[in-house]
Amino acid sequence: MVSDQLSAGVGGAPALTAGAAPPRTRTGNRRSRRSLLVPYLLLVLPVGLVCVSLGYPMVKQFIMSFQEFGLAQQFGRPPEWIGLKNYTTVLTDSYFWVVVARSVAFCAVSAVLTMVVGVALAVLLQQLSVVPRVLLQVALVLAWAMPPLAALTVYTWLVEPRYGLVNWILTSVGFEQFRAYSWLAGSQWTFFAIAALTVIWTSVPLVTLSSYAALNQVDDAILEAAQLDGAGGWTRLRTVVLPIIQPVILLLFMLEIIWDLKVFTQIKVLQSSAGNNEATNLLGTYVYETGIGGGNYGVASALATVMLLLVLVLTFRYMRTLMKQGDL
């Protein structure tokens, strides 16, 4: 009799069978919905800030690239819609393609050298004892934290024609042709060599410290197994370690391409000592001179848009590789 009542349920309600989950209440459903909404609510503020700080200027730049926007528009004249005229002006200018080729070459050399030096220093950090390793890490952090203008001031002093340390050393050992020689104004090659050194100086610490952190995550058991198989140090690094930390290396290389292709501060400061901007312009300074310097914001916006597309083209392969590996 009691078993029949239990099976029928109290008050005619359906009975709970063994192992069945209790029915969800309205309160439980509301809590579940709230927990699903929390991550999206937390994203509202950062996404909103990014859209306001980066999205609006990018949209405004894209619109201006189709407008006649010069000095007159800065004093109140409405901008005139001219379609693709600014892009035609940019793409048919031979000097633009010279600057693009120069920028891509500078980016390639700077990014590759930065990655090679940075990863090499990271491997060196792993081999050092505690005290030298800490000292080198502190030196890298200090170099990274130094303001770019301060580092550029030091480099400018080093290559100053009359009182610079480089010329003083060279003339002291007998190279009289370098007395009062201007490294920045004397040749495009020396200008871009010094510019590349300044860019590499500011980028190597990040690559080194990030690569060192990735190297420390490699399982020692894998390295021991490779050593037992007869792999030497270089072979282990090339065939075992670097493939494991490849996502980090690709991400850093992609960031280096982006930073080095749009480099501005180092080139602009060094140009003030060189005096020949046309022969040393890269895309960043070219956009600045066209817009801020020349007052032609429409053409400068078209230049910046083409520059953005170029960055996307150069980094697309690495972004696709990272996405396939599930790291983005």
UniProtKB/TrEMBL annotation:
<feature type="compositionally biased region" description="Low complexity">
    <location>
        <begin position="13"/>
        <end position="26"/>
    </location>
</feature>
<feature type="domain" description="ABC transmembrane type-1">
    <location>
        <begin position="100"/>
        <end position="318"/>
    </location>
</feature>
<dbReference type="GO" id="GO:0005886">
    <property type="term" value="C:plasma membrane"/>
</dbReference>
<dbReference type="InterPro" id="IPR035906">
    <property type="entry name" value="MetI-like_sf"/>
</dbReference>
<dbReference type="InterPro" id="IPR000515">
    <property type="entry name" value="MetI-like"/>
</dbReference>
<feature type="transmembrane region" description="Helical">
    <location>
        <begin position="297"/>
        <end position="316"/>
    </location>
</feature>
<protein>
    <submittedName>
        <fullName>Carbohydrate ABC transporter membrane protein 1 (CUT1 family)</fullName>
    </submittedName>
</protein>
<keyword id="KW-0812">Transmembrane</keyword>
<keyword id="KW-1003">Cell membrane</keyword>
<keyword id="KW-1133">Transmembrane helix</keyword>
<keyword id="KW-0472">Membrane</keyword>
<feature type="transmembrane region" description="Helical">
    <location>
        <begin position="36"/>
        <end position="56"/>
    </location>
</feature>
<dbReference type="InterPro" id="IPR050809">
    <property type="entry name" value="UgpAE/MalFG_permease"/>
</dbReference>
<feature type="region of interest" description="Disordered">
    <location>
        <begin position="1"/>
        <end position="30"/>
    </location>
</feature>
<feature type="transmembrane region" description="Helical">
    <location>
        <begin position="134"/>
        <end position="158"/>
    </location>
</feature>
<keyword id="KW-0813">Transport</keyword>
<feature type="transmembrane region" description="Helical">
    <location>
        <begin position="240"/>
        <end position="259"/>
    </location>
</feature>
<dbReference type="GO" id="GO:0055085">
    <property type="term" value="P:transmembrane transport"/>
</dbReference>
<feature type="transmembrane region" description="Helical">
    <location>
        <begin position="189"/>
        <end position="209"/>
    </location>
</feature>
<dbReference type="Pfam" id="PF00528">
    <property type="entry name" value="BPD_transp_1"/>
</dbReference>
<feature type="transmembrane region" description="Helical">
    <location>
        <begin position="95"/>
        <end position="125"/>
    </location>
</feature>
<comment type="similarity">
    <text>Belongs to the binding-protein-dependent transport system permease family.</text>
</comment>
